[in-house]
Amino acid sequence: MPSPRCKLLTASGLTRVDQRLIVGASAALLVARLRSLLPFRILARQLRWYPRTA
User: Cα separation of 7 and 13, whole Å?
Assistant: First the structure.
């Protein structure tokens, strides 16, 4: 059985890598969502500003 210190180091190392992966993945998903929603926001804004031209 490994020592508690060794376990702690392994766990902290894994969580650091997992945190980096999670942060990177969530940031990529957020950017993709914002990019996909951007045209809809512009369209909604145009429809709001010019409701009778459409």
Answer: 10
| Number of separate domains in the chain | 1
The torsion angles phi and psi of 53, rounded to 5 degrees, stand at -85, -25
The DSSP symbol for 14 reads H
Quick one: which H or E segment has residue 20?
Answer: helix 4-49
Q: Quote the domain boundaries for residue 53.
A: 1-54
8-state DSSP, 53: T
- 0.85 exceeded by pTM: no
- Please tell me which of 10-14, 33-37, 38-42, 46-50 the model is most confident about, judged by mean pLDDT: 33-37
Q: Which two tokens stand for residue 19?
A: 């945190």
Kind and range of the H or E element at 24?
helix 4-49
